[in-house]
Amino acid sequence: MPELPEVETVRRGLAPVMEGARFDKVEARRGDLRWPLPKDFVRRLEGQTVTGIGRRAKYILADLSSGDVLLMHLGMSGSFRVTKADEERTPGDFHHERSKLSAHDHIVFHMSNGGVATFNDPRRFGCMKLVARDRLDEEPLLRALGPEPLGNAFDAAMLASACEGKQTSLKAALLDQRVVAGLGNIYVCEALHRSLLSPKRKASTIADRKGAPNQRAVLLVDAIRTVLNDAIKAGGSSLRDHRQTDGELGYFQHSFRVYDREGEPCPTRNCNGVIRRVVQNGRSTFYCPVCQK
Ligand SMILES: [Zn+2]
Predict the structure, then answer these.
(1) Which residues, chain by chain, have CB under 5 Å from ion ligand 1?
(2) If 286 and its partner were Cys, which of 19, 109, 253, 258 is the partner (CB 3.0–4.6 Å)?
(3) Alpha-carbon distance 94 to 102, whole Å?
(4) Ligand 1 centroid distance, CA of 217 (Å)
(5) Do residues 21 and 113 make contact, with C-beta atoms less than 8 angstroms apart?
(6) 227 membership: H or E segment, kind and range
(7) Among candidates 152, 179, 149, 147, which has minimal Cα distance to 163?
(8) What is the pTM of this model?
(9) pLDDT, tens digit (0-9, with 9 covering 90-100), for 13-30
């Protein structure tokens, strides 16, 4: 499942094709993804210009000249393939992937600059929705989201206050989208390892009794920002069939320190531990029982 860095990478890949360009033609090859598309989906897009492409948590938000916002989520297996007008295709690879997966090309945006963005989603957990820009604050999909982990509102004081008195595990708290938005299983495991904090520790232990942050909260916030920024820099990472926007399979070659590394030596300097996998709240957690306290 794409996480925040992958979504940010997709957003950056879409920007050159969509920003400042008009939807000349929109193909909705089926009426639903995770949910039905808006009834007037094509009509509300065609002829509109994309004035900017942003992101909120794992949602990509394209601002349109009409005042609508096109809200897009990749779900479990969604990806975009982008073709620019001036781009030379590499016939072999490109042709092969395209023919193999074209049955799952559900939405195609033909832009006025000659660019084409194709949304492919085999499992169809993705979504596209149109929301009026001035109603965005009331949008149910966005309303309950906590702060952006890379934004200014997210700091040790904020995280400690959100975790104050929480008896759940620190890992579960970090996966709670109301605490911080857009973090998923992979980067929570990575951030906890980097900050040497056990995923099983109670969430409340990063705050003092008054809810003020302790050193653990400071280290954790720093680690979260670092792992996300590193992954964005690397172009994101991928599981299974999630693909970068330029359509190249296997582009994401980000290496994780603990995620999916059960039985391997812990990469922390001077630590002799071995990475262990446990299941917390139905999800695999990878951590080092020696250096993560
Ligand atoms: Zn270790």
Answers:
(1) 266, 268, 271, 273, 288, 290-291
(2) 258
(3) 12
(4) 19
(5) yes
(6) helix 215-233
(7) 179
(8) 0.87
(9) 888 889 999 999 999 999
